[in-house]
Amino acid sequence: MVAMDDVQKWFGELHVLKDINLHVKPGEVVVVIGPSGSGKSTLCRAINRLEPIDQGTIAIDGALLPEEGRKLAQLRADVGMVFQSFNLFAHKTVLENVMLGPIKVRKKSKADAEKRAMELLKRVGVDSQANKYPAQLSGGQQQRVAIARALAMDPKVMLFDEPTSALDPEMIKEVLDTMVALAKAGMTMVVVTHEMGFARTAADRVVFMSDGQILEENTPQEFFDHPETDRAKDFLAKIL
Ligand code: ADP
Ligand code: MG
């Protein structure tokens, strides 16, 4: 579903993605972990070309990501993204936030978009908030709306970049539970997170990044119980 081959990226002198090869199968859940500054966000952003790459190729469901243009917009619509900051439109209601993309990009009718949006809001447990504005919701509710909004585009893969890092502790679980349910329903997911409980329960594979490189790739069980590199051992010692 996602194929990154020999991907290199520099920010000026800084080599942020060093020969990244990452393949994600349909339905697979890959959790990306690693120290701050190791390139996790850049990797996520590269997957839907929010960040251009300098070398290598990235394909979504077999289609190579072009540099720009209408085809890029189309392919980007296949990749849902949820960020640390919820990025909802403040002047639109929850329901309008979820309806907007399907109407504008997928050319759905208003009635179809609304029906689907309500289904998705229900699925993430915030349907009772549909007519409120984002600021009237808790952080956890806003993040679940952001997930519903991404799902409304019928993405082939969902990217999550530290989706719970900005949340108060009591709201982290409701967002993680939503993500676990999505994983169980068969969604292909790439998740950057420091939530090791989520990685253990939901990940098919853990990817450990350090200094722009993928240093380890393993099942969560193997990775957490038997990290191979000193850098992974150090990292785990600090966060566990
Ligand atoms: P992570 O998400 O793992 O914390 P990032 O992908 O955000 O790491 O950043 C990787 C490295 O690239 C860091 O050293 C960061 O400072 C640098 N970086 C990120 N974005 C930019 C940018 N737009 N311009 C220059 N350097 C950047
Ligand atoms: Mg980051």
Distance between the termini: 31 Å
Uncertain segments: none
Number of strands: 10
Helices and strands, in N-to-C order? EEEHEEHEHHHEHEHEEHH
Secondary structure: helix percent: 25-40%
Class inferred from helices and paired strands = alpha/beta
Work out the strand percent.
25-35%
Bound molecules: adenosine-5'-diphosphate, magnesium ion
Largest sheet report: 6 strands, mixed
In the sheet with the most strands, the strands line up as 6-7-8-3-9-10
The Cα radius of gyration reads 18 Å
Number of helices: 9
How does the overall form come out from the CA principal axes?
Answer: globular
Mean pLDDT: 95
GO molecular function: ATP binding
Protein name: Amino acid ABC transporter ATP-binding protein
Membrane topology: Peripheral membrane protein
Keywords: Amino-acid transport, ATP-binding, Cell membrane, Membrane, Nucleotide-binding, Transport
